[in-house]
Amino acid sequence: MLEFSNEDIEIGRKLFTGKCEFIKSCLSLETLPRENLSEVAFFGRSNVGKSSLINSLTNKKKLAKFSKTPGRTRQLNFFKIHNNSHGLLFVDLPGYGFARVSKLEQREWKKTILNYISSRQNLRTIFLLLDARRELTQEDDKMINFFESIGLSWTCVLTKVDKVKKSEILTKTTKTKNILKDRVTLYPHIFITSSEKKIGLSDLRAYIASFAKT
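^ that's the sequence the OP posted. Answer follows.
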């Protein structure tokens, strides 16, 4: 099991106590921000907890807007986090599945998202969020296959672990590791998190901070 040093944890803490701000929402690649900073993106099924996780990581309850209605995030939302020495962009991507929009609009979303993922030079990793209460879906597997096909580094994050019995968390984590064991571009550590109970956030902050530009 990966362990972060106290120094790593402190670097992460300092980054996330810096300034956090919304930059812009984008519907097309032509409107993406042009800042010379590394980016990390949060992706997963609708209502998996992307916006809630961003808010918990940054300690900003309303930084990323979220809704109990699946499919409300319909644009690529960019946020900047920085202190005196480091900076980074967060990207909250529209979720897949459940979206209450037309098939045409869903196809347009998917095209924009996949083009962003495959062409964005500053993108360092994709955090694929998986609900700890659910099994991997066909949509999850398709996205993972896409990451692998383009050689993109990606990171697995289990969310909502507070909704799972403590005795089942290790079993769920081990099962997920076994399912993903042959994936080549997967970061070799699964992060276990709860936005509501603040579980696993320090380690995740430390890892994210490793991508921040000085």
